[in-house]
Amino acid sequence: MTDHTADLLIRAGAVHTLVPGQAPQRALAVRGDRIMAVSADPHGLDHRVGAGTEVHDLPGATVLPAFDDTHTHLVFAGLGAQDVPVHQARTIPEFLELIRQRAAVTPDGEWIRTTTNWQELNLAERRMPTAAELDTATDKHPVLVKRGGHNDVVNTYALRLAGITEDTPVPPGGTIGRDADGKLDGRLIDNALHLVEHLVPAPDRARRIEGLRLASRDYAATGIGTVRDCAVTPEDYAVYLAARKAGALHTRVRALISALGMTSAAQVEDLLDTMEQWHHDSDPWLSVWGVKFGLDGGLEAGATEEPYACDHSFSGMLIWEPDALVEAVEAVVRRGWRVGTHAYGDRAVRTLLDVYERVLRRNPGLPAGTLVMEHGGLAGPEQRARAVALGIPVTIQQPLLHDTAEVEEGFWGPERVARLFPARSWIDLGAQVSAGSDFPVGQFGAMRSVWGMTTRQTVIGVKGPEHAISHDEAVTLHTVNAARLSGEEGLRGTLTPGRLADLTVWDQDPARCPGDTLRDLTPTHTFVGGLLVTPGGAQ
Fold first, then answer.
1. What is the pTM of this model?
2. Which of 89, 187, 206, 307 could hold 312 in an S-S bridge, CB 3.0 to 4.6 Å?
């Protein structure tokens, strides 16, 4: 006889399936990694209970699908799990002392790395440390201080190892920082990062796997069941594969293999040759989504139509020549991969849409969702309409705006910062829009992002309240829309029989949580494929 018993049964106050028009359910059953059934009666699935069924009777709880973070950097979080925790510092002396402490237990000559999720305006001095200051922490180790994905500061030892002098040519699309006297200050931006970073040895495999174990569990603890990791090198992906084999991943991962630092189609073709081995992998926990390009800089180098507020001679940087990017993107799509391109400033958004329009025209019949705009930060009305007309999905990251608003106002002024990530307009236009954090620049967390999109709160107050969206819309951006972005709308995003059993359980209804309570709300349980992956219950 066929066994119809469930492995997991949850009875709850409300099970929000996110199926359009379906009222909240009261019970949900799981068998294996799939949802077996839902019922409007809390006891409507009791006949599925057998000797081996795990039953959660939670009459006050709310159940939602697990959330996606559609633009984040889990690899960075995994590395940072064991790096010098400079995000804890509140002054530059504290920052340096943390590095000094690590240097005291690190053999001479070995690299010292820091966490990346910090902002200089959180330091009392409201600036980055310099190479000379890092030298006071240690002159016996090369030091790599990363802030986000676009900025490094290194000490003199590291500059010397890399052969960087005051005569070193500045790479196109990059910056080699100098102080007021024209001397190197240790700052490297965008395409200059590789001058040093290629010298940094990867941590050993076991250490990296443990970092991913810790970091992915932290994501799951906030309600995130799938991450779209948007800058993964082939070496990083090999670590992901090892972590998956070791059972160390507590979220699903959709990786974008990084073409950052590349400036020609020939370089991209070499990358695609390496990626070919992963083209037909079908592991539901780990897969390659496509290729990640960067068109402009980040907070301090996003390409804008109008000059920066802090420097009227500067309008950011475009990292690619448009013709070269067209050729590179075509190389990717002709191999059957998707493309996600970082475009932050409005000039970058306009340029990217020009590039994508040319690629679509020259490659008719590309599957929907092949070309994606990452961020689209300052996309104005005309460019938003163009993106929708071209069928270009966009990912937005409200936590990035929350955490960096003060930094960005210094570069762009308050009016432009208030226009960042206009979720209301994207939705009203019918855009394919989904949401994430951009950790380490923004703080990850399912409800932290929902809170930000519904309030437009930042570290310096509400910015652009006209761009706020409803709670239900914000949840949809992280679930239904996110699954569509990954091409998995038939597998995830709603709590429907036959879909993967990726779900979160909350001890109160997030839709009814006030203000800061919602911002800091975490689930009591996160299940991925029917497995409990939150701390204390991780498989």
1. 0.88
2. 307
What are the angstrom distances between the C-alpha of 198 and each of 158, 195, 261, 263, 516? 11, 7, 11, 16, 42
Name the residue among 279, 219, 210 with its Cα closest to residue 70.
219
Indicate the pLDDT class of residue 538, thresholds 50, 70 and 90.
low
- Cα separation of 332 and 370, whole Å? 10
Q: Does residue 536 surpass a pLDDT of 80?
A: no
- Long-range (24+ apart) CB contacts under 8 A made by 364-371 are 366/333, 369/338, 369/393, 369/432, 369/484, 369/485, 369/487, 370/333, 370/338, 370/339, 371/329, 371/333, 371/338, 371/339, 371/341
Alpha-helical regions (H) of 363-422:
381-390, 398-412, 414-418
- Hey, what domains does the chain have and what are their CATH numbers? 83-197 (3.10.310.70), 203-526 (3.20.20.140)
DSSP of 64-88, one letter per residue?
Answer: EEPEEEEEE-HHHHHHHTTSB-GGG
Nearest one of 370, 375, 389 to 430, comparing CA atoms: 389
> CA–CA separation, 428 vs 436, rounded Å?
19
Q: Report residue 223 as tokens.
A: 């309600």
Alpha carbon distance 219, 231 (integer Å): 17
Other Cβ atoms less than 10 A from the Cβ of 536: the count is 8
Q: Please tell me what DSSP assigns to residue 42.
A: T
The angle at the Cα of 28, spanning 26 to 32, to the nearest 5 degrees, equals 175
Tokens of 282: 């079908």
User: CB of 477 within 8 A of CB of 437?
Assistant: no
The span from the CA of 57 to the CA of 144, in Å, is 50
Token pair of 285, please? Answer: 């926990």
pLDDT tops 70 at residue 258? yes
pLDDT of amino acid 1: 43
